[in-house]
Design goal:
Blueprint: E1 4-5, E2 9-11, E3 18-20, E4 24-28, E5 31-35, H1 39-42, H2 47-53, E6 60-65, E7 69-76, E8 86-91, E9 94-100, E10 103-108, H3 110-113, E11 119-124, E12 131-138, E13 145-147, E14 153-159, H4 161-164, H5 175-183, E15 185-191, H6 200-208, E16 213-217, H7 220-225, H8 230-247, E17 253-256, H9 276-283, H10 298-313, E18 319-322, H11 344-357
Parallel strand pairs: 14-15, 14-16, 16-17, 17-18
Antiparallel strand pairs: 1-13, 2-12, 3-6, 4-5, 5-12, 6-11, 6-13, 7-10, 7-12, 8-9, 8-11
Helix pairs in contact: 5-11, 6-8, 8-10
Length: 362
């Protein structure tokens, strides 16, 4: 039986509000900082991936409440890219609030609650920065709040900045958040901007995490970084998938190849550290129209994804692949504001098409 309290203040840890989408909570004085990476894994990773793991994409605080408003104190690191940080709230799976995420924030739920009280309320933390919560979550006197005891279908999705949705306008605007809200799935978002390099330790974390469905989005970051040959990419992808399968012998795994990126489909990419002059010189090389420094174009990496899944699928019938251009294709290129990252409408299209292509396994 869930206990009920009439107290207007609740600690961010240990109270009725349940953390979802976080692998760890770090105490920093009076602050609590969520992390999407397990500390035992994070300490072995590079600085870039650790920093992305500290960003709170998909992390929520959830409770069942009839409170007309919730007040909390947030601190956010400046985003390295994307819009200013925002906080979102959903009521029974519908977006009820999107607003500034810094300092003392009051989330007005009055209109969204209507006569549906109490309701399942989720506070979605900023998706493109690290977040610290201070003090308590404050509800109006006389309101009733109980613990979130929903037993939801668990979905873990891995990918790049497109999955993290760093350029989306809010925590609930990215394609993965939209899918989770539409299906009422419990989302764990392991999108890491610029850092989706199929790290074996991240695969081990997914393998050790309770989940009912895994989606792996692979290919764009190895291309933009010019970091691996086709052979290395294929081996890492196969190892990533089989490591997850070792931890989850029977659940569906859906692998998504890159969405369209017109300027990158057949053109070379170079390592990030290469000076601008060197990049220009390499672009004039005879092979520059089709290969990056270590081999694959984005189009060939997309083919590699499907080749690997086809090979593994011979003995793994619960493994499937989606061509990313079916989520966002050449006709949708206008939704890539910088030629790479979808805008909000692009994320909406991706979510709608993913929902059409992936049946609810329940």
């Amino acid at each position: 039986m869930v206990s009920m309290t009439h107290s207007p203040k609740f600690p961010v840890q240990g109270g009725p509000f349940r953390w979802r989408g976080a692998a760890a909570l770090h105490d920093a004085g009076a602050d609590v900082r969520p992390d999407r990476l397990d500390p035992n894994i994070s300490r072995l990773l590079g600085d870039g991936l650790r920093a992305r793991g500290a960003q709170s994409a998909g992390v929520r605080l959830s409770a069942r409440t009839d409170a007309a408003s919730l007040s909390l104190t947030l601190g956010c690191s400046p985003p390295s890219e994307g819009p200013p940080p925002t906080l979102a709230a959903t009521v029974n799976g519908r977006v009820a609030y999107v607003g500034e995420a810094f300092g003392n924030v009051r989330v007005d739920l009055q209109k969204a609650l209507g006569s549906s009280r109490p309701a399942d309320v989720d506070l979605w933390l900023p998706h493109n920065c690290s977040t610290a919560l201070s003090g308590s979550i404050v509800c109006p006197d006389g309101s009733q709040t109980t613990a979130d005891d929903r037993d939801l279908f668990r979905w873990t999705v891995y990918g790049s900045s497109i999955t993290q949705a760093v350029h989306a306008s809010s925590p609930v605007s990215g394609w993965a958040s939209r899918v989770a809200l539409e299906r009422n799935w419990d989302l764990t978002n392991l999108g890491f901007a610029s850092e989706a390099m199929l790290d074996p330790l991240v695969a081990r974390q997914i393998a050790a995490t309770a989940t009912d469905l895994v989606t792996v989005c692979a290919g764009i970051n190895p291309h933009t970084a010019g970091s691996m040959s086709s052979g290395v990419f294929r081996s890492l992808l196969a190892g990533f998938i089989t490591t997850i399968r070792d931890g989850h012998p029977t659940i569906p795994i859906v692998v998504v190849s890159p969405i369209i990126c017109p300027d990158r489909e057949d053109s070379p990419s170079q390592p990030r550290a290469l000076p601008t002059m060197g990049r220009r010189a390499l672009a004039r090389m005879p092979w520059a129209n089709s290969r990056n420094l270590v081999g694959p174009t984005l189009a060939s990496l997309r083919a590699d994804v499907h080749d690997v899944v086809d090979a593994l699928n011979e003995t793994d019938q619960a493994l499937t692949a989606i061509d990313g251009t079916r989520l966002l294709g050449r006709a949708d290129a206008a939704h890539l504001g910088d030629g790479l990252h979808p805008d909000d409408d692009g994320h909406r299209l991706m979510a709608e098409r993913f929902l059409d292509l992936v049946a609810d396994p329940r």
